[in-house]
Specification:
Layout: E1 8-13, E2 16-21, H1 30-36, E3 43-49, E4 51-54, H2 60-64, E5 80-88, E6 91-104, H3 108-122, E7 127-138, E8 144-158, E9 160-166, E10 172-181, E11 186-187, H4 189-193, H5 197-204, E12 216-220
Parallel strand pairs: 3-12
Antiparallel strand pairs: 1-2, 3-9, 4-8, 4-11, 5-6, 6-10, 7-8, 9-10
Amino acid sequence: MCLNAVNCELHDTELGSEIGFVKGMEPGTEGFRKLVKRQGQTKTTVEFSDAKLEFGNTKPNDVYVFARSACQATTCLNEATVTVRTVEGIDPVEKVLTLKPSGQFSSEIDRDEFNSAIAIAAGLGYTTETRDYISRIVGNSAVAQGFTEGTRDIYIQSKKINVNRFADNGALLGFMDVEVVANDPGSGACEVINKVLSAVAGAISGIGGGIFAGAEVLCTL
């Protein structure tokens, strides 16, 4: 879709190509207004990266939704962090996930709708691993006085999701791309995501009165 849009260009990243606006044709410019002033039916694409990430015992959608706090009214310039609980070896630990969103859109409403679409998509197609842990009970002497045992469900999902909207004439209307960074257990997210592509399209179709209806969903290696 981007290659057919006069105001869209691709940039190479470690996780593959990333979409972006051609300078001078982004939301808020005269070039953008001329392209979309006769906007009709829109086209949406949702893309998952095959690279996957452990989200600890926090559901991926509850992590991705924090990307909104790193975005301004029409773009994303900051990062956001979320602390989750996980298990390393047999130890219960906390780790920090960093969200790195990028995007350009026309308004705060668009920003919230893009973020909602990404969060909803992240809530589908994840896998879980149940891990046992042993926690030391430490008294005032800082010496272990006993142990407790337990389990945690660890959620695993694609570490990068993007949503892009195009006008019926092919012009790029807006996009949001969110990458979550932490220790990476490898690739293989597409094996599961490919089973829920239609479910993702249906789940985001009701946002904003149907602005993402009929979305094309894919997972890329």
